[in-house]
Specification:
globular, alpha/beta, single chain, TIM Barrel, 8 strands
C-alpha cells in the first residue's frame, strides 16, 4: 500500500481504536466504542477489566500482560482466556522483555505458546515486543519466536515504554522477518495521517491509535497511545 492507495475508510479499517489509560472509566470506554463505530475502525482495544462490552458494535481487542509483560506465562494465559470468555475476539499480549534482551527466545516462544493454547484460532493473537527497546537481532528473534508459537501478528509497542513506540525501521524489519505470514501491527506514537501511511508503506497491516478521529480528520493529536 502507498499513500495514494489508502483512502479514509480503508485507513479507518486498519485501526484498532485504543483506550488503555489506567484512569479510563466505564463511561470513557462506552464513548470510545461509539466513536470506533462512528469512525469505522477495525476494532476497539481496551483493558480486560473493561469487559464484557456488549455495547460495542465493532470487534473488541483486549490486552494481556499489559503494559510491563512481567507476568508469568500462566497468568497471561489465564488473563487472555478470561478476556475471550468475556467477548474479546483478539488478544494483544506483551512478552517478558527481559527474556528477549537476554536472548532467551525459547522462553519467549514458550510463553507465547501458552497464551496461544489458551486462546486458539479463530481468536487472533498479537505479540507486543517493544521494538524500540530491542536491537535488530532481538526484534528478529522475537518475530521468529512469535511465528513458531502460532501467533497471528507481531506488534511494535505498548505505547507505554520509555524507549518509545513504533518506528519505520522496526516495522520494515518485522515485516521482512515474518514475510507476510503474520500481520504487523504498528502502535505507539501514531498521531497523524502521514505517520500512519508511512507505517503502512513500511509493511504495517494494522495500526494501534488512540487519537483516531484526529488522525482520520487530518488533525494531529499532541499525545496518546
Amino acid at each position: 500500500m502507498t499513500e495514494n492507495t489508502v483512502d479514509g475508510p480503508e485507513l479507518a479499517g486498519l485501526i484498532d481504536h485504543t483506550l488503555l489509560t489506567p484512569e479510563a472509566t466505564r463511561q470513557d470506554v462506552l464513548a470510545a466504542a461509539a466513536e470506533a463505530a462512528a469512525l469505522g475502525t477495525y476494532s476497539l482495544c481496551v483493558s480486560p477489566a473493561m469487559l464484557p462490552l456488549p455495547e460495542s458494535t465493532v470487534p473488541v481487542v483486549a490486552v494481556c500482560g499489559f503494559p510491563s509483560g512481567k507476568h508469568s506465562a500462566a497468568i497471561k494465559a489465564t488473563e487472555a482466556a478470561e478476556a475471550v470468555a468475556n467477548g474479546a475476539s483478539e488478544i494483544d499480549m506483551v512478552i517478558n522483555l527481559g527474556l528477549a534482551t537476554a536472548g532467551d527466545f525459547a522462553s519467549v516462544e514458550a510463553e507465547i505458546a501458552a497464551v496461544r493454547a489458551a486462546v486458539p484460532a479463530p481468536r487472533v493473537l498479537k505479540v507486543i515486543i517493544e521494538s524500540a527497546a530491542l536491537s535488530d537481532a532481538q526484534v528478529i528473534g522475537c518475530c521468529e519466536a512469535s511465528e513458531r508459537a502460532g501467533a497471528d501478528f507481531v506488534k511494535t509497542s505498548t505505547g507505554f515504554h520509555p524507549a518509545g513506540g513504533a518506528s519505520i525501521h522496526a516495522v520494515e524489519l518485522m515485516a521482512k522477518t515474518v514475510g507476510g505470514r503474520l500481520g504487523v501491527k504498528a502502535s505507539g506514537g501514531i498521531r497523524d495521517r502521514e505517520t500512519a501511511l508511512a507505517m503502512i508503506a513500511a509493511g504495517a497491516t494494522r495500526l494501534g491509535v488512540s487519537g483516531s478521529r484526529n488522525l482520520l480528520q487530518g488533525t494531529a493529536a499532541t499525545s496518546g497511545y
